[in-house]
Amino acid sequence: MPSKDADDEIEVRCPECDAVVRVTVAEAERTNKAKCPNGHEVPLAKALG
Ligand SMILES: [Zn+2]
Asked: pTM of the entire structure?
């Protein structure tokens, strides 16, 4: 059961290694990028809808 409001996570795929990267919406909005577990930076498009 989801019990959090502002900590929703989104999933994106790293364009370099295709790993799934999970990032909170709050962090995505703040940084506009996510960190792939393999060290790549994943730019986040405006898909936060
Ligand atoms: Zn990667």
From this structure: 0.68
